[in-house]
Amino acid sequence: MGLLLDFFLVILVLMAGWWTIGAKDGCSAAVAFVTYGLVLALIWIRIAAPDVALTEAAIGSGLTGGMLIAASTRLESARRPARPGPATRRLGIVLSALLAAALAWAVLSLPYPPPSLAKAAITALPPTGLGNPITGVLLSFRAVDTLLEKVVLILALLGTWSLAPDRLWGGVPGRKQPRHADSPLTLLAQILPPIGFVIGWHILWVGANEPGGAFQGGTILAAMWMLAVMAGLVDVPATSRLWLRLLVIVGPGLFLIVGFAGFAFAGGFLAYPAGFAKPLILVIEIVLTVSIAAILLLLLAGPPERQPPA
Amino acid sequence: MTPPLLADMPTAGGYLLVLAIMVPIAGVLFQFVLGGRWAGRIALLVMPAGLAIAVAITVRLTESGRPLVYHLAGLAPPLGLALRADGFSALMLLTSALIIAAIGLFARPDFATPAASGEARAPFVFWTLLLALWSALAVVFLGEDLFTLYVGLELLTFGAVPLVSLDGRAETITAALRYLLFALFGSALFLAGTVLLYGEYGTLDISLLAARTHPDVTSAIAVAMMTAGLLAKAALFPFHLWLPPAHAGAPAPASALLSALVVKGPFFLVVRLWFDAMPVLTNLPAAQILGALGSGAVLFGSVLALRQSRLKPLIAYSTVAQIGYLFLMFPLAGGEALPASVRMAVWTGGAAQAASHAFAKAAMFAGAGLIGQTLGHDRISDLRGIGTALPLTTFALALSGLSLMGLPPSGGFLAKWLLLRASIATAQWWWAGLMLTGGLLAGGYIFRIVAPALSAPEVPLAAVRTPARRQEMLVLALAMLSLLLGVVPLGLSTLLAVGSPVATQILPR
Amino acid sequence: MTADVLFGLAGAVLVGLGLYGLVADPLPLRKLLAFNMLGGGVFLVFGVVARRGAAAGLGGDPVPQALVITGLVVAFAATALAVALLRLLFERTGQTLLDPHAEESSHPDQTNE
Asked: Of A92, A216, A2, whose CA–CA distance to C25 is shortest?
């Protein structure tokens, strides 16, 4: 029964993938992509990775898909370009067939018994005081990767902002959204964000012991903020605002400070002193969630398009 | 030969590796929040600190004769992450620190925040990305875990792409977008290989992989994918399409960073992958493919450089060509059957090529920037007489050209000489022929720019702007550094032997 | 055929589809969608590797799962930057082709295997 469901999911995801690549116009392709992402999230649940499923649904298909749908509606060019020439298409088919075949072969030849770090992770988990080993990996064992990845996010944000014209630097991203008194969007934006706000923080909080964590929580917060912005209830802050810049860097900043403190108090960069691991990790996660929410929102909002308010 | 497992143990001085990565990051965070003119000031503050750290790492390395190793969070691989510096890492760190400091000082007049505004776009972006690239390079040169290296590659890409589109013209935006797409293709392929290696061996740490890998089809597929991805990022022929428009379109200081340093990162990782992680797979046939692609790059890039009408695209195509030389390391030093002295010579030659090209190319792009600002254009046909207006710059271009051509006494000569001797010693004559051809072609395109620059102009030169002497001195300093490498071959070999996978033994201390 | 193998092969097919879109489609937006699929396929294979490593009472090896989460965030950041570049290009030139003068796509990639 389970295998039948899995088979069905595979068929669905491949169909959605095929549709994404082959769709006639960008908008259909982007919608197909969102479908693909949601089916992929279901597959993640089937392979016992609920944390990843949450992230895929929220960031992978939710935010990414939404952004691509919005882009596809604004980018439709007046003239549909020529379809790829036969030479390029043949090259593409040959290369993708080769790559897929190579990967498939490798998947089929994976060794048995499979090597795994699960035991090592479980053994190393108790000093962190966490119950969710994925959070342990992200914030303790491989914390540097998480820290560096925050910097990657900041660089992407900086790159996005750099595309504004000189005179609009430091301004407000996006166009001012009108606020309609009676529209369903306004109603949704009034009801949903408070609930989403609580859910977002809840997902962060339980991430210590159950599926969840800073990324997933931060995404929900960013999405709720975006909803309010789209309905015209609030505006995106100007990018030169000091408090906004602080929000963006406070997560990685605190992470870095704790990291350096580890030299003095815990015998290594990003090591946690015994007994203080769990509270430190929770504080870092809370602050990271704030930064992630701010960065994700700003990445969605794009480069500045309006002068900052005086 | 099996790499010594002692390399796994953390060593004293390992904290320096952490500093090399984290000090520029701290700088970036401060720049982001303080903003405005502070972006430039913080960059200026970090430069000597970063240089000191690179020097300290080099000194420690040569003193102890062993690579520096650090276990992050005090946790050992495979669950934890390690950082490791061998001779090659130290050389690249030092090169990066010197070039970033020189280019940073060079770019100060170009990217000064105007007095009127609190914060200007181009300066803020430039100074922040300068430090970000520095940190990214440190991650690439020091990381020992494949996923950390993947994140480092992403840092490198995200730091480099906005520099390409900094002036906001349609051509540079297109170039930046093309660069980004190629880079993302490369990252995805790199990650795919990483996934397979983890599935096969249960670890992503390079030293552990070196101990655990055995030559089978899955490992070969993984290495092939990762190499292909890295080649796309390094713009090796035939993946070179994105590089000339991107490097030519960026502002001159940014072009210097991109050509000198950013493209060296992926190359460094191919070396890590082939020599450190999977030495059993560096058999001769597969390495010949890399050599063949390198040859294609040298020939293709040089010929196209000869046909350029503007200075910056010519220099960019020269980068395409010079990257090709780097990949001759693989057929010449691959294969564990080759004598260790030959392999060590090739290792030194490849590293010297990477470093000397970095200095020479940085000097050339910075010099081209000065020429462009002085003349108001960079057409090669109208370069006559620029030598009188910019004597130091022209001299620096000529010196850098020496290194690119591989003429003594430059670092480029040392590199190509070592590779040439190795190709004769291993009876792979075809690489020697290629290098000589490449040298001739490089001579051709260098002559194209230096000859008119040194000759008297037909009409008096209309200078749009008088250049700052300080900027010219920095260009000359960079060119001199490229020459300096050719004068210290013994010191270079000693440094590069530390922790090298092709060295015969680790000197006991 | 177990579920893991099935999903692993599905991941391989998705990677192939993604690469095809990245190479063949001339429009950068479609290349971007294809890149996301390529990444998704790679992550899926990683997830299969994690599932196979289930041990010590866990449903899957937590290390690959954590790495996929990191990778998903990085992919989003990349997409955001690319979309911003695309929109600016469209604003400047009214179209998004990387090589507007070519009839065919000018984005040759080759993997050497």
From this structure: A92
State the smallest CA–CA distance between residue C101 and chain A in angstroms: 11
Q: Cβ contacts of residue C79 below 8 Å, gap of 6+?
A: A64, A67, A68, C32, C35, C36
Largest CA distance in chain C: 59
Q: B82 — phi, psi (to 5°)?
A: -120, 155
Pick from C29, C62, C110: CB nearest A134: C62
CB atoms under 10 Å from CB of B105, counted, come to: 18
Distance CA B245, CA B241 (A): 8
Structural domain boundaries of chain A? 1-73, 122-310
Contact A56 C72 (CB under 8 A): yes
Give the integer Cα–Cα distance in Å for B268 and B360: 18
First-to-last CA distance in chain A? 63
Q: Do B161 and A269 touch (CB under 8 A)?
A: no
H or E stretch at B69: strand B68-71
Instruction: Please name the residue that has the structure tokens 């620190």.
Output: B97
Q: Which domains does chain C have, with CATH numbers?
A: 3-93 (1.10.287)
Question: Is the separation of the CB atoms in A149 and C73 below 8 Å?
Answer: yes
**Whether B174 contacts A171, CB under 8 Å:** no
pLDDT at B2: 43
SS (H, E, C) C38-50: HHHHHHHHHHHHH
Residue B92, phi-psi category: left (phi > 0), alpha (psi -120 to 50), beta (remainder): alpha
pTM confidence score: 0.95
pLDDT digits (tens, 9 = 90+) for B57-73: 999 999 988 899 999 98
Please identify among residues 46-65 of chain A the ones whose CB lies closer than 8 Å to any CB of chain C. 46-49, 51-52, 55-56, 59-60, 63-64
Assess C12–B contact: CB distance below 8 Å, yes or no: no
Q: Tell me, what's the pLDDT at A81?
A: 61
Q: Which amino acid is at A115?
A: P
Q: What is the pLDDT of residues B6-23, one digit of tens each?
A: 447 888 888 999 999 999
Closest CB to C13: pick one of A29, A100, A296: A100
SS3 B2: coil
Give the number of A-C residue pairs with CB atoms closer than 8 Å: 308
Residues facing B143 on adjacent strands: B83
Whether B171 and chain A come into contact, CB under 8 Å, resolves to: no
**φ, ψ for residue B143, nearest 5 deg:** -65, 145
Q: Which of B148, B151, B179, B198 to mutate to test the interface with A (most CBs of A within 10 A)?
A: B151
Instruction: Give the burial class of B144: count Cβ atoms within 10 A of its Cβ; 0-12 exposed, 13-18 middle, 19 or more buried.
Output: buried
Average pLDDT (A142-160) is: 96
Could you give the CA distance from residue B84 to residue B90 in angstroms, rounded to a whole number?
10
Give the whole-angstrom CA distance, residue A172 versus residue A130: 40
CB B319 within 8 A of CB B259: yes
pLDDT digits (tens, 9 = 90+) for B313-356: 999 999 999 999 999 999 888 777 778 888 899 999 999 999 99
ipTM confidence score: 0.95
A115, A252, A262 member nearest B201 (Cβ): A115
Asked if C78 lies within 8 A of B184 by C-beta distance, the reply is: yes
Task: Please report which confidence band the pLDDT of residue C62 belongs to, taking 50, 70 and 90 as the band edges.
Answer: very high
